[in-house]
Amino acid sequence: MNIKDLSPGELEKFVADKGLEPFRARQIGKWLYRKGARSFEEMTDLSKGTRELLKSAFSAGDAMELAEEQISTDGTRKFLFKLLDGKQIESVLIPEKGRHTLCVSSQVGCALGCTFCLTGTIGKIRNLTPSEILDQYILVNRYTGGSVTNIVFMGMGEPLDNLGNLVRALKTMTDENFLGLSPKRITVSTSGIVPRIKELGEQVSVNLAVSLNAPRDELRDVIMPINKKYPIKELIKASVKFPVPPRKALMFEYVLLSKVNDSDRDAYDLGHLLSGINCKVNLIPFNEAGPLPYRSPTRERVLSFQEILMSFGLNVRIRKSRGSDILGACGQLAAEYPARKIKGEKSAARVVV
Ligand code: SF4
């Protein structure tokens, strides 16, 4: 087991169970997350006996290795990581003015099968461990000289389908004695596993993004099968109760699929659904990818959809597509699994590792 699989609380318990002083947990955390230690030998202010004890129970090395990096013509960087069992995942670093956002994966593949998402075509292979979630941030930061400022869980997988490990990783990220990141800079995105939204909110306070993508159940049932289990009304009810950090608003993500969910009627229905809710809406024109049967809407359609939503007093942003030439954009992550190979890639993107 990797020691980074333990949450701060679990590490404190381990330390107490072994009869060590309580401050040892903070000391170990500092070595792992502030000083970048990858072995217990490096933890020189621990006694030899303590280091031996830790070594007999855990490893402290990286949970993955960087297999490849691709750089998009727009500066977006996609990292392909090889896990210790040979499985692969991807993370995407999106540089913008004043912030560098890392989009991390929570699973190898995904079970939820949203029909507009390439990851969904793979199916779920397995959950990521806490150390595999954390190491995406740690390795990218190490590789890019500490550039990551924000983290979004919008990579491969449904984070709430891996709730226990997600929460462990989030606690390590936000504990001031461990990674010490502000919860305001972390966003978890979900397709809507309703009971888990409440469970997540009971354990951590981070930003929540709900991948909505349709204003009516009959449409959402088709593009997001999870909706048959947890329909829109229940999803909205659970989402508005989620404890986002102070001065932050709930986010709704809406992937615009040409002639599927981008009509004026859809915009009006969405406006009625969300009006009065303290939220932000992100419109994401679909990124055409491989075998998926959808098309991007025209720019005019996107602007008109936005205008209708704004007439309801909603705060609506159109998200610029980033990294689509390296299949790094929203819904395009599939690592080296078969779905990805269907697209004949011709781009100016660079492969650097
Ligand atoms: S959009 Fe998210 S939840 Fe849906 S299939 Fe893709 S990774 Fe899974």
List the helices and strands and how they pair.
Layout: H1 8-17, H2 23-33, H3 48-57, E1 64-71, E2 77-83, E3 88-96, E4 99-103, E5 107-109, E6 124-127, H4 130-143, E7 150-153, H5 163-174, E8 186-190, H6 194-203, E9 207-211, H7 217-223, H8 226-229, H9 232-240, E10 250-256, H10 264-274, E11 279-285, H11 299-310, E12 315-318, H12 338-341, E13 350-351
Parallel strand pairs: 4-7, 7-8, 8-9, 9-10, 10-11, 11-12
Antiparallel strand pairs: 1-2, 1-13, 2-3, 3-4, 5-6
Helix pairs in contact: 1-2, 4-5, 6-9, 10-11
The structure holds iron/sulfur cluster.
What does this structure look like?
Helix content is 32%, strand content 20%. It has helices at 8-17, 23-33, 48-57, 130-143, 163-174, 194-203, 217-223, 226-229, 232-240, 264-274, 299-310, 338-341; strands at 64-71, 77-83, 88-96, 99-103, 107-109, 124-127, 150-153, 186-190, 207-211, 250-256, 279-285, 315-318, 350-351. The longest helix has 14 residues, at 130-143. The relative contact order is 0.13. Iron/sulfur cluster (SF4) binds next to loops. Residues 110, 112-114, 117, 119-120, 156-158, 191, 211, 331 line the site of iron/sulfur cluster.
CATH level 4 superfamily of the largest domain:
Aldolase class I
The CATH class assignment of the largest domain is Alpha Beta
Runs in which pLDDT lies below 50 for 5 or more consecutive residues are 339-353
How many E strands?
Answer: 13
User: Given the C-alpha coordinates, what overall shape results?
Assistant: globular
Question: What's the overall average pLDDT, rounded?
Answer: 93
Our measurement of the CA-to-CA distance between the termini, rounded to an integer number of angstroms, reads: 28 Å
Largest sheet: 11 strands, mixed
Helix content: 25-40%
CATH architecture of the largest domain: Alpha-Beta Barrel
Q: How many H/I helices?
A: 12
The oligomeric state of the chains shown is single chain
By helix and strand content, what is the structural category?
Answer: alpha/beta
Bound molecules: iron/sulfur cluster
What's the CATH topology name of the largest domain? TIM Barrel
